[in-house]
Amino acid sequence: IGWSLILAPVYALTQVNDLFTAMVAARWLSFACVFGIFIMIYAICRRLIEGHNKYQIAAIVALCAFMSSVHCDGIVQQAMTEPPFLLLTLISIYFLVDVRISLKSVILAAIFASLTYYVRPNGLFSIGAIVLFLLTRSEFDKTIRVKLILGAVLAFFVVSAPHMISRHQAYGSAFSYGENSKILVDNSTQLWSPSIKAPTLVEYVEKSSYKDYYEKFIAKGLWQILKLFYGTMLHEFWTIVFIASFIKTVFIVRDKKYDVFYVWMLVSLLGLSLVFHVFRSERHLIYLMPVVLIVSVGFLSSMDRNSRVKFSNIVLLVILIFNVSWIPRA
Asked: 82-97: per-residue pLDDT in tens?
């Protein structure tokens, strides 16, 4: 209902009276959200990357790479839920991209994460990502860590409460999405069949084998996500750079500012793998593209720190690559 909540006051203020005008207004609002996404990519690069010229150039590269993708063009033209969802996700991440994490920044991140849950069901993964991120921060003692986690969880569910209450009233459960909740059926065609009842978790566990788990959640879940996201939606160049960045910032030169991106990716991919066998769509993965691009340009910007290779030369190479990287594939 999140996109509807955003559109409703706009329609009321502009006195929209026909469907065509409503479609045009929705598209312009979608464009405004995408413009906000560009601003957040720039802001995150500024906070993540040291050096005035470096973060500016890195942000420009990330923005150009995202803007030149067919997916960016698609979410603007279709006026669907991706723009507000992606914008709110990046705002939430922004408050956690800092070496010094405070209770205020955690609560702000949780509030915007809860707003993503209004927009899309997988916004629920956001609170899992925030909690796991806080658990990985070794500089906190037990008392501070518990305080931060409780603050995040409380802020998330307080803001989400109206949405969850309305779902409980409509479907009998705060986490129910009607027919879309039948995630344990065998395939997507069974989702909308009223004659097919979804098995409960206990029933599914009782009748399924380890092979069934592998087939549903790994072969048709996680593996298909990785193939679609890193093999089709992203150019191989960005995939390689992202992996190189992960190896460097986690195992070689530890940089905790990148942790939130890796945790967000991990939780999102694992969460989506539970439902991807019935909800196989690129739409569920678009919001992760800026995450990969920001991490990648951050890695590229650090390459000339202790070498004679100039970052400007690297940028030129990147620009040449991404000019052909988003050509639609057959």
From this structure: 888 999 999 999 999 8
